[in-house]
Amino acid sequence: MLLSKGFEVEIYTGKLTGEIVGLSDRIIRDLDGFVREPDSRNVEYTTAPFCRYERLLCALLAPRRLLRNYLHQLGEYTLIPGSTLSLGGSDRFCRSDPNNPYHNFIEKSYGTTVVTASVHINLGIQDSEMLMRACRLVRAEACLYLALSAASPFLDGKATGYHSTRWHLFPETPSRVPLFHSHQHYIDWTHEQLSAGTMQNVRHLWIAVRPNGDRRPYCLNRLELRICDLIADPLVLLAVTALLEARLWQLFAHPDALDPLSQSSLTPEELLDLIAKNESAAAHKSLDATLYHWQDGRPLTARKWLENLYETVFPFANARGFASALAPLLKVLQTGNVAQQWLRQNRLGLTPSQILTTAITQLARQENELSEKLCRQAESLLAV
Questions:
Q1: What is the DSSP track for 150-197?
Q2: Mean pLDDT, rounded, for 150-162
Q3: The pTM is what?
């Protein structure tokens, strides 16, 4: 038995040269399964929840292949990796729906700091109190998933000094969100925010991880990890998801030992400060960042923490038959995430435009190969 898993993928559209172009109005009009974001330069699709990683891979790739074919019909357009407006355009907001009052609020309140691309990873947890416990643990460790996924070192054609410019700029809303100690705490707190106007609606909770469900804040059934930059490589995305799932199975086996509210030497307010500090450090230097462990505040690099975590959760993944999905993480830890690879190329003299152009070609080729080989093989196995 595995947890159900699904993705919400936000991705930019644009030219083969890396220039981002707003096409969401046409995409939404002509293709099923895609929804608009407030800015027209990116578009979102959601995968159905699946437990098996083979099916999850195919569910991730199929909409993207459909979208790629459609963009090709429009002209020389494609999908753009990265999580910020890497080559330009942060000086303007390109409204996808001028008549939407919520979009109007977002543009006026946040501007282009929210015009980013990312992936939200959802894992099914039916018990609401265990879900709250899972949210506490994952939020305390969310900086690690940002460190793995950082993919936004450029903005407006220049290196910003951050590996995840997206998370550095993205406005956490509300500004100080507690570690919810129960489902009722989450319900009461949400009502307080809606009454005070610090949240416009139940979706307006923009933090690294949050409880999710069909009727928030009451009916909850999944954990949503929101901190990751766009993980364009499908196999790396599955690996990050596998790390998260394995950590949750470890939590289910030892719920009291892995609860930050009871197993940390820090107070709840000190924990919130530590979490914010770790997220900022991970946005700055990702795998090379010095972080502080939620248990006792001891310092260690993100890479070392992830190496330790990998060894800790591997037996839980192995016992449930998905340890092989973790393998791509080892390469990321060894060679660096996307941001680190792009910055190395930039230091060698390549421009952000040249780097994006190569990354676009490589991603399209990889997706085509995975679709042709692994998905067809998986579909044939599932049909037996």
A1: --B-EETTEE-S-SBHHHHHS--BSSS----SSHHHHHHHHHHHHHHT
A2: 98
A3: 0.96
Of the pLDDT bands very low, low, confident and very high (cuts 50, 70, 90), residue 191 is very high
Residues paired with 155 in a beta bridge: 158
Average pLDDT over every residue of 26-37: 95
pLDDT > 90: what percent of the chain? 94
Query: Which string of b and e fits 216-236 if b means at least 16 CB within 10 Å?
Result: bbeebbbbbbbbbbbbbbbbb
With CA atoms as reference, report the closest residue to 119 among 199, 9, 212. Answer: 9
**What token pair was written down for 247?**
């950590």
pLDDT of residue 381: 44
Q: 157-163 — which CB contacts under 8 Å span 24+ positions?
A: 157/86, 157/87, 157/88, 157/351, 157/352, 157/353, 158/352, 159/343, 159/346, 159/352, 161/284, 162/283, 162/284, 163/282, 163/283, 163/284, 163/285, 163/286, 163/337, 163/339, 163/340, 163/343
Name, in order, each residue with C-beta under 8 angstroms of 161's C-beta and a sequence gap of 6 or more: 284
**Does residue 382 have a pLDDT over 50?**
no
The 8-class DSSP code of residue 228 comes to P
Residues counted in the chain: 384
Cβ atoms of 229 and 164 closer than 8 Å: yes
d(CA 384, CA 380): 7
For residue 194, pLDDT over 90 is answered with: yes
Q: What is the token pair recorded at 141?
A: 């460790």
The answer on pLDDT for 383 being more than 50 is: no
Give dist(CA 166, CA 299) in Å, integer: 25
Residue appearing with tokens 């990321």: 332
Cα dihedral 165/169/174/180 (nearest 10): 20
**98 has pLDDT over 70:** yes
Give me 253's structure tokens: 């086996």
Question: Across residues 41-53, what is the average pLDDT?
Answer: 96
Q: Is the pLDDT of residue 93 over 80?
A: yes
Helix (H), strand (E) counts: the chain: 14, 11
Place of tokens 């040249």: 354
Output the DSSP codes for 37-59. -SBTTEEEEEPPPBSSHHHHHHH
Amino acid at the residue 11: I
Number of Cβ within a 10 Å radius of residue 200:
15
